[in-house]
Specification:
35% of the residues lie in helices and 11% in strands. Strand 9 and strand 10 form a beta hairpin. The longest helix is centred in the middle third of the chain and has 20 residues. The chain is α/β, with parallel strands linked by helices. It has an eight-stranded parallel barrel with strand order 3-4-6-7-8-11-12-13, surrounded by five helices. Bound molecules: flavin mononucleotide and iron/sulfur cluster.
Length: 478
């Protein structure tokens, strides 16, 4: 059972949606009337360091837990990338997380740097371009990047599916969750030097494969993000801000040296909270009182107040100094505060019932992103967490981009269920209601149980996939 918040699908008119938003006491940019291309703000081209982007839709990175044990794409991976191309969005932020070291794979089926990576990346990019061309679109203004990652304390690289965490520093709550029987190994400074070299190596391959930027990932509790809060870590990669951002700075220097001309982006969790756990009635509650939590990079205290964005500001100022313009903003982590990261009606199987109306989580990310986008007007900022808006996503997206609240609107789950939503919006077509993501979270529950990720309820391909029956069995037993 999900906690009863008004369902977005039941809000049939713009007035009803706006009244619901107002009743929550949050502000959300909104335009009741949609415009099509060429007039829509979402249809306007914009230059980026990675090339011209023909519109303001961005596909957020989403992995499918469907690579081979060697880290190579399968037909399922290729299908997803093709559909990303078919979407009509002109900025592809990373495709999906690509591990640069085996021990940093978030699951044994994550794409990973290896001897065939260059050819594999060429193929994935070709699939995406082909999807775009098949949709009747020019690829001249399509910008494609690759997201580079090490999963840190969320590494689960081997076929035994067991957590093999590698952390930046000991954590009083998260260590217990990933390693109940002993301390979590800490990556040494030498490990981080090696990791930086692997990030550079992967960037070189991505450039050779035709990608025009790489994302040096700093979000969602993975290693790059965790380093940002490594205030208690000794050595070259912890302590003050300069040391906590050394991995990024060192990697940027290496990429500029070995892959000149390749643009660089960063996906950042702009704010965070104490880890959540199931409380009474399975509703999420912070495990450590927010006021006592010292490990957030950008703390939101769980009240109606806005998150503290001072950490994010300092980080974005560094990006400006480094000559980086591509920034994708997100929040928290899908592991320890998923309602902050990807607001949903239904939690994933290892989650908790949302402690707030999910629309509040959407509004919080959009407001934080807008504040930062306006303070850093030279950055090309991508916003996240729009899928919960469902039928009203285009109305909010249009208003956000028109008012300068983001340069791009990022789409995650919605693209799994409804890949051509951007094209429908730009062409002035009504939305296909049956394809709209209703945030059932099956695309997260599947992989948490060792199954491939896809939109089981709404994408007929996954409804018919053998893992669908397994997923149903898992959910029935939960
Ligand atoms: C199945 C799935 C896989 C994801 N994989 C990644 C990933 O590889 N890298 C990443 O930065 N975010 C990943 N995300 C998070 C999304 O990019 C996005 O931030 C999140 O889903 C919120 O956006 P939405 O509301 O449009 O779904 C994933 C999300 C889902 C549902
Ligand atoms: S499984 Fe489909 S409907 Fe459910 S959250 Fe994922 S994309 Fe949306």
């Amino acid at each position: 059972m999900s906690r009863a918040y008004p369902r977005i699908a039941a809000l049939k008119t713009a007035a009803q949606f706006e009244a619901h938003v107002a009743s929550l006491g949050v502000a959300l940019p909104f335009e009741p009337t949609l415009e099509a291309a060429p007039d829509s703000p979402l249809a306007q081209a914009v230059d980026t360091s990675a090339g011209p982007a023909g519109n303001r839709f961005c596909i957020l990175p989403m992995e499918g837990w469907d690579g081979t044990p060697e880290g190579r794409p399968t037909d399922l991976t290729r299908r997803r990338w093709r559909r990303f191309g078919e979407s009509g969005a002109k900025l592809i932020w990373g495709g999906e997380a690509f591990a640069v070291r085996h021990d940093g794979r978030a699951n044994p089926n994550q794409l990973c740097l290896g001897p065939t990576s260059e050819a594999d990346l060429v193929q994935l990019r070709d699939d995406l371009l082909e999807g775009h061309s098949t949709a009747g679109l020019s690829t001249d203004d399509l910008v494609i990047g690759l997201q580079l990652t090490h999963s840190g304390r969320y590494s689960r690289p081997d076929a035994d599916h067991r957590p093999k965490p590698l952390a930046a520093y000991p954590h009083p709550v998260l260590d217990r969750r990933v390693s109940p029987n002993g301390p979590v190994p800490i990556l040494s400074d030498d490990d981080l030097d090696d990791l930086s070299a692997r990030l550079v190596q992967a960037a070189v391959l991505a450039q050779r494969a035709g990608f025009t930027f790489v994302d040096v990932k700093h979000c969602h509790g993975y290693l790059g993000h965790e380093l940002l809060s490594a205030r208690t870590r000794a050595g070259r990669f912890g302590g003050d801000f300069a040391s906590r951002t050394r991995l990024l700075r060192q990697t940027v220097e290496g990429i500029r040296r070995d892959a000149p001309g390749l643009a660089i982006g960063v996906r950042l969790s702009a704010f965070d909270t104490s880890p959540f756990r199931k409380g009474a009635d399975d509703i999420g509650e912070p495990e450590v009182p927010q006021a006592d939590y010292a490990h957030a990079f950008g703390r939101w205290d769980g009240t109606e107040a806005a998150p503290d964005l001072s950490d994010a500001r300092e980080f974005l100022a560094l990006l400006v100094d480094l000559g980086i313009d591509l920034v994708c903003l997100t929040a928290g982590s899908p592991y320890y505060n998923p309602h902050i990261q990807r607001p949903a009606t239904f939690p994933p199987s290892d989650g908790y019932q949302p402690p707030e109306d999910p629309l509040k989580g959407v509004a919080r990310q959009i407001a934080a992103t807008a504040m930062l986008a306006r303070e850093f007007p030279h950055l090309r900022v991508v916003g996240s967490a729009y899928s919960y808006l469902q039928d009203w996503l285009p109305h909010v997206a249009q208003a956000v981009v028109r008012s300068g609240g983001a340069a791009f609107v990022g789409l995650g789950r919605m693209v799994l269920s409804y890949p051509d939503l951007p094209l429908d919006v730009l062409r002035g077509h009504p939305l296909k209601r049956k394809a709209i993501c209703r945030t059932f979270s099956d695309c997260t529950t599947g992989p948490r149980n060792g199954l491939v990720s896809g939109c089981y309820p709404l994408d007929p391909f996954y409804t018919a996939h053998p893992d669908h029956a397994r997923l149903k069995a898992v959910k029935a037993g939960a």
